[in-house]
Specification:
The protein is mainly alpha-helical and 166 residues long. The protein has helices at 3-31, 33-75, 81-98, 103-116, 120-130, 133-145. It has 6 helices and no strands.
């Protein structure tokens, strides 16, 4: 026999076997209630495992963000105006080069720049227009962790809406 004939017969046999198994599986799925229950159980089990994995990933992500903010606070920030300006430019440039390769590190760079910027609200509006959404989401988590950044109307130093009350 030729090799092409042997190959054709082998491929045909494998294809026929796969079709027969698909027909058997479908027939069993339609007629056997225990098999259907087992399939449903397995599906639920997989969904639960995926949900638990997603929750664990979220917890690890939040812990990494908290650790990054704590490390940045520990390292400190410059106090001199020229140092702040150089630090700001350096951190923004680093954040832009990191981009979406490492979200937490890129967001940390933008966070550090935000910490030394004189008007954080203005910088956040600039970030909204220029920085990608995933990085902005991580940056928002960092801002939520650090209560010292005045970004909202009720941030540190605001009168919390009590205007004219004496």
């Amino acid at each position: 026999m030729k090799t092409t004939t042997i190959t054709a017969v082998s491929v045909g046999t494998i294809f026929t076997g796969l079709c027969a198994y698909a027909i058997y599986f479908d027939h069993r799925r339609r007629t056997d209630p225990e098999f259907r229950k087992a399939l449903r159980r397995e599906s639920r089990k997989q969904a639960r495992a995926l949900k638990q994995e997603a929750e664990a990933h979220g917890v690890r992500h939040k812990a990494a963000v908290k650790a990054a903010v704590a490390k940045a606070k520990e390292q400190g920030f410059p106090t001199d105006v020229e140092e702040k300006e150089a630090f700001f430019m350096n951190e923004v440039a680093r954040g832009e080069t990191l981009g979406s390769d490492d979200l937490i590190d890129a967001a940390l760079c933008f966070y550090k720049a935000l910490k030394v910027y004189p008007n954080p609200r203005d910088l956040i509006t600039i970030y909204d227009k220029t920085v990608s959404k995933p990085i902005l989401d991580v940056l928002a988590e960092m801002i939520a962790i650090d209560k010292t950044i005045a970004v909202g109307p009720f941030g540190p130093g605001s009168s919390s809406g009590a205007i004219g009350v004496e």
